[in-house]
Design a protein that fits this description.
By secondary structure, this protein is α+β, with helices and mostly antiparallel strands. The protein has one domain (5-144): Beta Barrel (OB fold (Dihydrolipoamide Acetyltransferase, E2P)). It is 31% helix and 28% strand. It has 4 helices and 11 strands, in the order E-E-E-E-E-H-E-E-E-H-E-H-H-E-E. Strands 1, 2, 3, 4, 6, 7 and 8 form a 7-stranded mixed β-sheet that branches. Strands 5-9 form a two-stranded antiparallel sheet. Strands 10-11 form a two-stranded antiparallel sheet. Strand 7 and strand 8 (94-95) form a beta hairpin. Helix 2 (96-102) runs parallel beside helix 4. The longest helix is centred in the middle third of the chain and has 20 residues, at 47-66. The radius of gyration is 17 Å and the shape is globular. Keywords: Endonuclease, Hydrolase, Nuclease. This is Thermonuclease family protein. InterPro entries: SNase_OB-fold_sf, Staphylococal_nuclease_OB-fold, Thermonucl_AS. GO terms for molecular function: endonuclease activity; hydrolase activity; nucleic acid binding. Residues 6-144 form the TNase-like domain.
Length: 161
Amino acid sequence: MPSKRKKIPIEDVRVIDGDTLKIKNNRKLERIRLLYIDTPEVNSTNLLEHFKALEAKKYISSLLQRGRDLTIEQGVIKRDHYGRILAHVYIDDIHLQPLLLKRGLARCVIPHRARKFKSEQKYLEEFLRLEAMARKEKRGIWEYEHFNGEMINRVRNIHHQ
């Protein structure tokens, strides 16, 4: 089944964080979660994670400022458990998820149920390859040590004098 693409005017889009957008769709506000990636959280108590999250948000915002059209393409899984639309997002036909993965601003997250669908395989394979490349080259979040997928601040102790 071919996926359906929907164009949204850029002026109706707001960046919440590196993997979530808010759009106005027929006068209704909707959240869009970028499918198969996860970026650090903006309000993380880990300052390093917080700053990397701001970097991802700023990067997407800069692309939106220069862009004309935003297009979403939903995959097989339409919404997440929070009710957000799950989609591949394009700005002027440039796919956002691969850009974030290449820069090391996101990690690949693939639910088990998505692996079952042949239509999703082209994305999953590409996303995993891009993440591995960014990790190998220590770009973005991969520049820092990881423990169970979380960034660890290299500052272990702060000594007051």
